[in-house]
Amino acid sequence: MRGVPGALVWRRRVSGAALVLPDGCMDLLWLGERLVVAGPDTRGYRVAAPAGAAVRGIRFAPGTAPALLGAPPGELLDSRVALSELWPADRVRRAVGLVAAEGDPLRGLAEIGRWLTADAGPVDPVPERIVRSLRGGASVAATADAAGLGARRLHRLSLAAFGYGPKTLARVLRLQRVLALADRGIPFAECAFRAGYADQPHLAREVRALTGRPLRELLGQDSGA
């Protein structure tokens, strides 16, 4: 998205209950008249809303939201928190005003993203390097070596950027990788091999542990926050 590297704005219609899947990201949601921060998920997050309710959000690239929102991700794990609980009232009013001033809330959310990015200054490149390495299938040890970090420092940086350690991040990114493969109709055994699981039973255990559901039930699902 222009002015907010790696971010995207999205819209989703919720049909009653929905399951949000872990993706390594944090979102800022517009729910009617208020802004809500979706923290990093370590498991499937169940959302209940009136059928047909519209949810809009801006999804920040993994590891970037804490610096932009000033929100420690470890305190927001598996939760949704009103922005008013994290920011001073005048700053919340400015953010809400940006959304209200636009005819389309998505444009307002994009404006919030550009404002926060400009305020935050240069982006720390290390979280993106960590994500790129783990997303490519590298081990945690290889990721630490490639980033020039010791294991402990990698863990500390991961907690600060993602809310959890690199092993959890690797599991979440691998889940997203296998979902993308399975959505293309690739057989599950091949998905397991290509995504880096030991075998198909390992894939099945991991998917259920992270989402609470078998892989087949997740295909084609929009995983928005």
From TrEMBL:
Keywords: DNA-binding, Transcription, Transcription regulation
Keyword presence, Zinc: no
Secretion signal, residue range per the UniProt entry: none
HTH araC/xylS-type domain sequence ranges: 124-221
Residues that span the membrane, as ranges: none
A Pfam family annotated for this UniProt entry: DUF6597
UniProt-listed PANTHER family: BLL1074 PROTEIN, HTH-TYPE TRANSCRIPTIONAL ACTIVATOR RHAS-RELATED
Name of protein: HTH araC/xylS-type domain-containing protein
Source species: Nocardia aurantia
